[in-house]
Every structure is written in structure tokens, then in C-alpha cells.
Amino acid sequence: MNWSGWYLVLVLVAAIVVLIVLINSRVRFSPFVALLVVALGVGLAGGEDPATIVDSITTGAGDILGDVGLTLALGTMLGRLLAESGATGRIADAVVSRSTPRSLPWLVCAAAFVIGVPMFFEVGLIVLLPLLFSVARRLELEGAAPSPYASVAIPAIATLATLHGMVPPHPGPLIAVVWLGADLGRTIVVGLLCAVPAIVVGGPFYARLMAPRLPVRPDAELVAQFTETGTGAGGGVGPDGRRAGEPAPVPLPIALVAVAVPVVLMLARTVAEVALPDGAVFRQVTTLLGQPIVAMLAGFLYALFALGLLRGRPAEELRTSLAEAVKSVTGILLIIGGGGAFNQVLKDSGISDAVGAAASGLPVSPLLLSTSTGSATVGIVAATGVVAPLLAGAGPWYVALAVVAVGAGSVGLNYVNHAGFWLVKESFGMTVGQATRSHTAVQTVVSVVGLVMVLLLSLVLPAGA
Asked: What is the pLDDT of residues 127-149, one digit of tens each?
């Protein structure tokens, strides 16, 4: 790579340093404003046409808000309904009553695994937040964990990130399966063999080490709306999950269905896209219903009726409560939009390509090279184009290993230019440093363990046809 390419890499490093300084120095810029300032500076320093920099910023912000923002808004309203009906309290009671401080991270991993199979990282976290907050709130009241919110956040992040990168039929690795011509069955086997150790090390093990050192607590209003301590327009909910005027707490099966509706719809879409031909009617239906926005909307509508209107809550009270719920995440939405703007400028200025070119020029194994690009689905798409020519003549097991290596690399070093970083930071009330030691570190641990497992498996699985 020539000097201009390395210059763009240095611009990226400098941009991250400036962003951290703006947020954490005495200036104390809002992360949203800091992201916009740095995005503008990166565009200019990276040589992007000044006339198009603003277009990059608005396109990046609009794309990520259309993708994640709408889902977050629906998930927030769903979470408010779950909390005010006592549903999340019932689920949290079921989890906590069957766990100890030692076993709780494993149960959180299990819940995140079930929910995260069909979902992108941000969507899965949004769906899990009501449960995570309710469990953490229970632990906080009982004094059962030194940092309850970190204790549940770390295992959830590890599990969702691992599934996001390594295990088909999750949409991310499924892209690499198709583009590299991998065998789906073999890839699922390899993905699970690599994912389980990654989840264990990045989740419960890392949580035991790091959670006591991360005394984080989300914004009180956000905690209130996702737990039974919340107050809607019609008053709060008691410890048994009962609102004023309600005959009994919401039954646990109804509470579970409210959480399961979006999960099942997204999973049905993934299965149908793998198992059915393009023109199949059922596939077309599930493709629509399984889109994250549509699936979350379906879950919200179910909860609106099953946990609200049919249980006697006045429609006007519900509308007021849900409006307040969306207001509480306005700041998070703006920060996610800022992250999308920053990321788009990195792409349009050529910095992302420069990073990929720097990595692709290294004399390393195709399996190691597969880990070198970007983040998440974008990184998977970029890496498959680099790696595909290197797999000519490789056997099906080796191609499956390459798919998982691509996915493992895609989740590593997930930092300030990614929406997931800001969603975790703001949701759990973290500083940038705390989010780095939790979100970024966990995803990097998952990435490294996944790669190590790929390399170990490559020693025993056949490389040839």
C-alpha cells in the first residue's frame, strides 16, 4: 500500500483520539455533537469532496436510524408495555429464582442465544433490554452482585456478538456462506464448535473478572420504564407486577409470548430463506414478517392488546405512556445517528478501503486474513471479496472454516464508529472507557477465541476437496 493509504489509516487513528478527547475532556461534548464534528474533520482530512461531506453525514445518519432507530423506538415501546404490565418482572423472577450469582451469567447467555439466533446485534440487545434491566434490578435490590448491570450486560454482549458473526443461519454469516459457496451444514457445525468457547470466555468468564470493576448504572428513567418500578400515566406497578385496578399479575406464558413474537418471526424468515426456493409463497410471507421493523411492530401490537387494552388499561393512558417511553431514548437515537454519519464518512473518504488494503497486504493465511476487515455484516461482505479467490480448490470443511473466520474477525475491535458501541454505552450508562472495557473488549475476546478455534480445527479437518 502506498503512502496515501497509510495517511488515511493515520487519519482514522487521529479521529478516534480526537473523539475520545472531545467526549472525556473538560469540554465534555455530547457524543452526538462530537461524532458530527469528527465526521466533518475526517471528511476534510481524508480528501473527500467538500460538497459531498454533508451528503455522507446525512446519508449515514439516515440509513442507521432507518435500520436501527425505528427498531429501537418500537422495542422501547414494547419494553414499556412489558414493564408496566409486570411481564418483565415475572420473567426476571423466573430467572433469578432459578439462579445463583454464579449461574446467572450462564442463564443470561442461554436467553441471549435463543433470542439472538435470527437477530442482528443491535436488535437482539433491544429485545433483551427489558429482561436484562429487570434481572439486574432484582440483583441490585437483593445486593447479590457488586455490579448487577455489568454482570448481565457482558454475557449478553458476548452471546449476541458471537451469533452475529459466527453461526448461520444468522443473516451475517449466511452472507459469507452464500458468497464463498460454503456447505451450510458443515458451517453450522464449525460455527457452533467455535462459538461455544467464545461465548464462555467472553461471557461468564470475562464477566466474573470485569463486572466488579464496572460499577455502571443506566439512566434512572430508562431503568424505570423497563422494570416494574416504572410509572406510566396511570400509576406504578407493585412488586407482584400488579397495576392499580388489575385483578392479577400477567401470567408468565403471556409474558413469554410477548418477548417471543419478534424472535419467532425473524427466525422463521431465516429458516425459510435457507430451506425454501425464491418463489415460495411462505418464504415471501416470512421475508416480510421477519424484517426486524415488521417483527418488532408485530410484537409491539401483540403486547399493546394482550398486556394493555385487553387488561383494561385506557387507550389514552397507554398513548401517553408510550410517548414518554420514546422521549427517554431520544438521546440514544441521536448518538446512533452520529455514529452512522461517522461510519459513512469513513467509507466515502476511502479510509475504510485503506484499512482493508493495509490488512490484505499482509503475508498471512487466508483464515487469518479473513479476520482483518471492518465490523459485523459490512466486514463480512468486504472480507468475502478478498478471501474468495484464495479458496480455489479448497475442500468444504476449509471453506466452512473460512466463513467462521470471516465472521470472527468482523466482530473484533468494535469501537466508536459502530452503532452497537453507542447503543451499549448509552443503554447501560457507561463512559467511553467503560464501554471500551466491556463492549469493545468482549467482542475482541470473542473474535480472538473464535479465530483460535478456527485455527485449531484447521489442524484436524481436511483442507482439500
From this structure: 788 888 888 887 787 776 678 89
